[in-house]
Every structure is written in C-alpha cells, then in structure tokens.
Amino acid sequence: MIVPMIKYGFLVYHRDFDSFLSRLQEMGMVDIERHTTALSDEERSLLNDINRYNQTLKELKIRASQLDKISQVAPLDSESVLSEFETLVKEKEQIENSIRKAQKDLNDVKPWGSFNIDLLKTLSESGLSIKFYVTNEKAFDETLLAEHTIEVINNEAGQVYFVWIQQGDKDTSLPIDAVEVKIPNYSASGKETEIATFRGRISEIENRINELTHFVSQLEATKDELVNQFEINSVTHSADKQADDKVLILNGWVPQPKNDEFIKFIEQESIIYVSEKAKREDNAPILLKNNRFARLFEPIGSLFTNPTYGELDLTPLFAPFFMMFFGFCLGDAGYGLVMLLGASIFKRKVNKKMRPILSLVQWLALATIIFGMITGTFFGIELVNVEIPFIQKFKNLFLDQNQLFALALIVGGIQIVFGMFVKAANEIRLWGWMHSITTFSWLLLILGTLVFYGLSMVEGLNVEFMGIGHKIILGVAAIGIMFFNSPGKNPFVNFGLGLWGVYNMVTGLFGDILSYIRLFALGLSSAILGNVFNSLAFGMAPDIPVIGAIVTILILVAGHSINLFMAALGSLVHPMRLTFVEFYKNSGFIGGGKTYQPFEKKIKQTI
Fold first, then answer.
1. Which tens digits make up the pLDDT trace of 529-570?
2. Which of 153, 487, 514, 581 could bridge across to 434 with cysteines, CB 3.0–4.6 Å?
3. How far apart are alpha carbons 236 and 275 in whole angstroms?
C-alpha cells in the first residue's frame, strides 16, 4: 500500500532559517518540495568535490578489500589525502605513458644490442663515419664483409642489422638494397634501466596509495558532510522568499505514521506552519508499506516506476503471480533446490541490505521446486521415465506438455481478468464509480460468456450457450461498454469511443493471452537443455573408470550451471515483461510517482 502523506507549509524568519534547516535535516522526516533551478557556483563546487571524493573512495575501497592489513600512517586532513591521491594517480598515468614510449624505443634499439653512445661520438669526431643499416636477409651478400668494413650486429626475423665504418665522410653507397637507420642516441641497456626506474617509482606510488586506504572512513565522513551541505543549499534555493527576503516559505511532505512525532518537533521550534492531508492531484511522494512477503517484490516494481499518489499499489497484487511465473519458466525441482540451498547459506553471511534479495531468491526457488514437482523434472531428468517405485505412485500427477500449454493460457487469463478487477477498483478510487462501469461491463461480458459456455457443456442442466439469459447479459454489457466509457460526454462521442475501445480490447486481449505462452516455452526449453547436458555427460565420458566419472561430473556441473544461469535469467526477465505489460495495462496502471526522499543528514558509513 501507499503510505498517506501530510502536506506541510513552513513560514520561517530569515535569521532562523539556517538553524531550522539544520534541525530539520537531523530529524530526517520531511521530503522537501524542490524547484528546478540552475546550480549556483557554490553548488557546482560542492558537486565537483563530492565527485572527487566518490572517485577516490571507489578506488581506495577496492584496494582496502584486497589488503590483509592496512598500515598505520601519519594523520592527514581529508583534502590533503584527496589531493595526494589525485597527484599520485596522475603521476602514475604519466609514468605508464613514459613506460610505453620507452618500451617502443627499446624494441627499436634492441636489435642493435648494447653500445656506448659516447664512444660513437668520439669515433665520429676522430674522422670515422659509422652508419647503421637494415636489409632483408636474402638481399645481404656475405662478400660485402671482405670488400667493406662491415660488422653484422644482429640477424633476426629475416632482417640483417649491420654497421658500415668508413674513413671520413665519403659519399658512397652500398651495392645492396639496404635502409640506412638514424644512429640511436640511446642504447638498449640504457632504456632497460630507464624502464626499471619507472617501474620502481610505480611500485612506490602503489605502496603509498595502499597506505592511503587507512583514511577511507575519514574520507567517507567528509564526503557526507559535503553531501549534507549540498542538500541544505538545494533546499535553501527551493524556498520562496517574501517580504523583502525577510520571510521564507518552504513546502514538504511527511508520512502520516510519523506525523505525530513531527508535530511535536515543529511546535518546539516555534515555526508557523499549515498542514493538510495530501490529495491525489498534489503529486505527493510515494512511500510503500507492504507485508513481509510483498515487500520483497518492491525492488522489482521499482524497476518500472512507482504508482502515482492515490492509485493502488500493485506490488502485493502481482507478487504471487510473479513468483508463480518464475517457477513456471524455470520448472526444475533440482535447480530450485540448488537456488534454495545457495540463498539460505549466503543469507547468513551477507549484510542486512542483501538479505531481502536472498529471501526473494528463496521464495522463487520454492516456486521452482513446486513446478518441478508438477512437471516431474529434476536436473533435466524426466521423472515419468524413471523406474523408481516411490516415484511410480506420482506419475499420473505429472503434467504433460499439452496440459502445461493449457495451464499457461489459463493462468494468463486469470491474471488478465484479475487485472481488470483491479482496474475497476482503481477507477472507483480515483474518479468515482461511474468511470468503472465500462470495465465492469467487460468483466460481465467475459465472465458471463465463460460461465454460460461451461454450463452449456454440462449434461442435464439444459443451459443454452447464446440463449436468452446469455443475450441479456451481453446486452447489458454492451450498453455499459458503448455508452459509459467516458461519463459526461455526448452519447454519440461515447458510442464512437466505445467502438474504438471494442477494437482495442478484442485485439489486445487476444494478444495478451497469447503472450503467456512464453511461460510454457521457457519451462520446456530449460528442461530440454538439462536433458541434453545429461546425455552429453554420459555419452561423451570415456570407458576408463576414474577418468570417465570425472569427465561425467565436469560436464554435468558445467552444463547445468550454464543452463541454470540462462534459464534463471529468462525466468526473471519474462515474468517482468508479463507484469509490466500485460498485467499493468489491464489493471489500468498509471505510474510516474516520485519516490519519497526525506531531507536527512548523511551518516558516515562503516567500512
């Protein structure tokens, strides 16, 4: 359900405004109504600092989780830690670029080996001309070594690296096709030393960044202070200034269950205020309150959108269907058992925030086990074909493919009809009973037709399908559909809209019901894939006793793990599609509500 909201308007003297906001933030109950305005320079600066802290904390938290022990370091203020971290990261990036460049230079000079740059300069100054050449191995002529002062330095990858030494600067050329290379001004050993120095500095930077993880909690606290300050600035700019800026008016929302506590607080502050219950048109923020079971499905509903204030919260209404659809799609008792055991084990080890997610997995696993028992599927094994005395008693209870196909359509029809009842209730709740006549008329037509058809199939009742009673029901339904779809409008307009509504309902209803075939298809595909992996495991294993068993186990574990992951993913996505499209559409869901976000003080998180 949607928690009722109380709308407040505060009238605050400008000198008391900052202290009032500070205490209001500590109270953490009011969702302030904010105006969209351009950010001030101060707010931009705060946002920039918050982003800097977030980026730094992201890196330091990862490092802290990988370190066995965090070293104690000299105390620093948060800004110094942040600046040092950013400087170190920037220096590390520059050094890594330098290493890449030095590595390229090393690759270029490495074929020439180690040589003395100063010696080359001395020889050149004494009148010797030393030139470096590279040529193809096939083009190099060994006779050149006797005719010219040539020294082969290296021969690799089909290339010959050599130097030609001449007396003086003679303008001569070699009788082979060779490329002269510019004399390197560095040697391979020099570049290797340079790269080693760079890597040593990176190691020092890494160690220092690891030491900075000691300040994670301190940085979190400073970041939260900046967030609190940004929130105060944002709320301040949302206040309406009156009486030459002497008086500020602020609007906000308080959940009704917290209203008594808030009234005590506001009266102690001696603040002038007005309050009233929120109306549907006020677009109040949305806070959901459901039972322990339905609450687990709230994150799924929030993936689409919140309901608007005043309409029904569909979370507890789609939760049982979603659970059933997941089990229908996965439909393997073995997979459900794995999920149930895994979620139960991890639930004891994770923090409180993750426990509701694992509780949801437990419920979905339970639905999977139930449908696996209904279909007789266990890790891809069709139990109907297993000759086990205990299972023989239940073989007649297992549903075959035709029955599963029919069950998918029946379940779809039930959810659609249920959604139409929800739509009628929503229409009464939002606009009055007149607006629900058309929806109830469609329900009368659909359910009346099904009832008369079912009774006509029973021998001895003498109920005629499309008889007088059935026609009366159809006539009443037709009047409601054609003339009450838009109460208050001209009857001819209503009739035209009714024709268009009939077309949309007939075509949409048929397509919606067919959409539920995906439940049958996904359940069938996961069972087939599981059976395929079983066949591969026992068919591909060699006849060697120990090795054969190992191969079989590896294929079974790998294959069923892949199938479980893919099938569970599909079993999550497709029920969401059926919920957000078929069910939400037929229940008249409007959506678009904003989440309740109280103006509260951020508290330093525990790392």
1. 888 888 888 887 777 778 888 888 898 899 889 989 999 999
2. 487
3. 20
